[in-house]
């Protein structure tokens, strides 16, 4: 696997003239962040050796290199999901490649269903921990010690330092932030009312179909992780309503400007 990772990384290094240390992964409906980047190079996933292809509506499907708030970044405009039929190693392959080109910090974003009764649609939740209910893990199988430890420590999956910066920045911007535990499920079905109730009893505040595999691999490779969810629908007891992917995209698009402003102002402090 390391050979494929290096092949992809070498391809990218031949195409780019920047050395970003920060990567941003955009979730469903959050692609507007790309509009705030001074783009230097954009490479479709289909052109990158060994890269999967995003098949979900709302995911652009390209790596964007450039500057945001005068900070060099690479943005994954579109991610890969387990429910698309990819293996966990394929879902997280991009993190492996990003590490090889020098990325040290990863910002992950997603659209999620809120289960905390204090949440409302449009809120931004900073992820301070997660519960993996995907029934799988990208580190299963033989471990390559060149890439990380056999048994990954996860007591601080999400960087407390970066979370502190987020809240400090949000206060200056007058952006209200929630924080909580993200529950990861495979999808592609949205949750039943009983599932929402069970996940909340377990300690979850929001639920989604991504992010956790990426966090695991990023931490395994020694990268610092910050993650945030845009609450696009509610799974609170007595408030569960029918939801569609189109409605999720619409809610994410409406909340997107707040997320963009937060990340934009955080970058120079990282």
Structure, described:
- The structure is a single chain.
- The protein has one domain (2-269): Rossmann fold (3-Layer(aba) Sandwich), CATH 3.40.50.
- A hairpin with a 2-residue loop joins strand 3 and strand 4 (71-77).
- The protein has 270 residues and is α/β, with parallel strands linked by helices.
- The two termini are 31 Å apart.
- Helix 1 crosses helix 3 (93-100) and helix 4 packs across helix 7 (245-266).
- It has helices spanning 2-15, 88-91, 93-100, 160-173, 193-202, 212-220, 245-266; strands at residues 22-26, 38-44, 62-68, 71-77, 105-114, 124-132, 177-184, 206-208, 224-234.
Task: Give a quick summary of the entry.
The protein has 7 helices and 9 strands, in the order αββββααββαβαβαβα.
| Count of β-strands | 9
The CATH C-level name is Alpha Beta
Main sheet makeup: 5 strands, mixed, barrel
Unreliable spans are none
Tally of distinct domains: 1
Strand order of the largest sheet: 5-8-7-6-9
Helix content: 25-40%
Structural class designation? alpha/beta
> Can you tell me the CATH architecture?
3-Layer(aba) Sandwich
Strand residue percentage: 15-25%
Order of helices and strands: HEEEEHHEEHEHEHEH
- CA distance, first residue to last residue: 31 Å
Please give a handful of descriptors for the protein shown.
Rossmann fold, 30% helix, alpha/beta, 270 residues
List the helices and strands and how they pair.
Blueprint: H1 2-15, E1 22-26, E2 38-44, E3 62-68, E4 71-77, H2 88-91, H3 93-100, E5 105-114, E6 124-132, H4 160-173, E7 177-184, H5 193-202, E8 206-208, H6 212-220, E9 224-234, H7 245-266
Parallel strand pairs: 1-4, 1-5, 5-9, 6-7, 7-8
Antiparallel strand pairs: 2-3, 3-4, 5-8, 6-9
